Amino acid sequence: MSDTSPIRALAHLDLLAVLEALFGQVVVPPAVDNELLQPPVGLPRVDVRTLSFVRIQMPGNPNQVQILMATLDPGESEALALALELETLAILIDEAAGRKMARRLGLLPIGVLGTLVKAKQRGLISVVGPLIDRLKSELGFFISKPLRDEILRKAGES
Fold it and tell me: Given a cut of 90, is residue 43 above it in pLDDT?
């Protein structure tokens, strides 16, 4: 299960293959598909329909989506509602409000940084530090120094 940001970030780093290697199939709701196909100005389009390991699925509970949309964007709302329906334990999500809501709903949020650490631990990538730096400089990711230090420690790079 994934929201938009982790897929966009991994696509930017040309590392979408780590999603399949780490998680097998990734399910995204239509709102995430739409956000990836119609990105903000300056960001490239990502077509997950071309990825064999991605399945697009509509959440079955529109009321749950509407409740979540009171505080979250459509992609996050549909992804969280779908994660609950599918009884998924973890969800790929980066934004603070979405991560907070995921925890409140009993889900484990995993962001792109956690995904990079897992990829390094599995030998899928060799370094995390330069990738974090690219996310910050090229995509404008906010990564505080304490968070960067923690991620590098977990990746065995500090």
Answer: no
